[in-house]
Amino acid sequence: MESYFLDWANLLLRWVHVITAIAWIGSSFYFVFLDSSLTPPEDDDLKKQGVSGELWAVHGGGFYHPVKFAVSPPKLPGHLHWFFWESYSTWISGFALFTVSYLYSASTYLIDKSKMDWAPVTAIVVALAFFVVFWLLYDAICRIFGQRKNGDAIVGALVFVLVCIASWLACHWFAGRAAFLLVGAMIATAMSANVFFWIIPGQRTVIAQIKAGEPVDPIHGKRGKQRSVHNTYFTLPVLFAMLSNHYSFTWSHPQNWLVLILMMFAGAAIRQFFVMRHGYKLGRNGNPLPYALVGVAVIVGAIVWMRPAPMAAVSGAPVSGAASAIAASASGQNDYKSVQAVLEQRCYLCHGEAVQMKNLRLDSPDSVKQHAQAIYQQVVVQKLMPMNNATQITDAERALIGRWFEAGAPTGP
Fold first, then answer.
1. Rounded distance, CA 204 to CA 80, Å?
2. C-alpha gyration radius of the chain
3. Axis crossing angle, helix 219-243 with helix 176-194, rounded to the nearest 10
4. Are 346 and 388 contacting, i.e. CB atoms less than 8 angstroms apart?
5. What are the beta bridge partners of residue 351?
6. What is Dmax (Cα atoms) for the chain?
7. Is the CB of residue 116 less than 8 Å from the CB of residue 174?
8. pLDDT digits (tens, 9 = 90+) for 273-320
9. Distance, CA of 413 to CA of 411 (rounded, Å)
10. Which pLDDT value is given to residue 314?
11. Is 88 in contact with 196 (CB distance < 8 Å)?
12. Mean pLDDT of 4-10
């Protein structure tokens, strides 16, 4: 029952997390587009009010005319919409999902004993430290270098180095899938912290100054804008890290830390293209296509580099157990006994008589037949099982199960 309720919690939290993330990312993308597409106002009355830019747009059968006041409007409206709950809800639901999926079962999902054989509490503390330490270092970089000459370039380079170090450490300390998700959650935490500690407080200060009739200090808007721009470049790397847990060929690669860095870099480069293309249409900057081409080239290079090597044919005299089953399968015997020997050695530990994780038993022909499709998907296609490959299943054994499934998944003699 515990596993059943955890699955429901995982599903519902994932649903909420995706919904809130769509709302946050959608509003972020829209405002980046809006800022990049604003043109100086043509109406004299708007100029007198202090409007710095305007945009005409058509959507859903209506026309929209948003305008931007660079520092402050002449008068605050009665109702002012704030954009912060999208961020907070995304982080809260994401952290709850991370807790249910990884922290709650740290020994299963977070720890890979072949990398670090530490206690679950230790692994949890270290994982949470990634969130805190990354934010403190990132925030310090922004504070120290953000307002200097060429500050944006310096901050970008230093943050990239920081992400690379964090990726290397995570992939060498934690299970591959958990490491990718941890790095993504780490960056997402910094994004939400930008909203909580800088963007919203700065906006509140500006509003308080307007209400008090005091001169508005433009530094608050500049700082908020800087952190908001950082968030937009973080978005695609975070999304890749989150989605990668469904594709084991990424996080199970021997150099998975490099895979993660390359794909996040590609995402940031492609995002740069989308950010600059609006200004390019208005003649404000050069053609940003090279950024997109660099991102695509990195992805294509990663695909070529990561391609699996052809599997060698099984040869030699088998010893026993799974090795014997592989040899039998290679000779054309895709029977249940061949698969059963692999299941017994690699899967019964978690799905046998003593333990039935996910309410699944694989020590009976009827159960194996019933779950043949899931076995094929989890073991052969996605290579998610065994979890973190704790029982060291080989590629040849995965191929054996694949041939058995394609032969109709027989469980009889």
1. 12
2. 26
3. 160
4. no
5. 356
6. 89
7. yes
8. 999 998 898 888 899 999 999 999 999 999 999 987 765 544 443 444
9. 7
10. 44
11. yes
12. 82
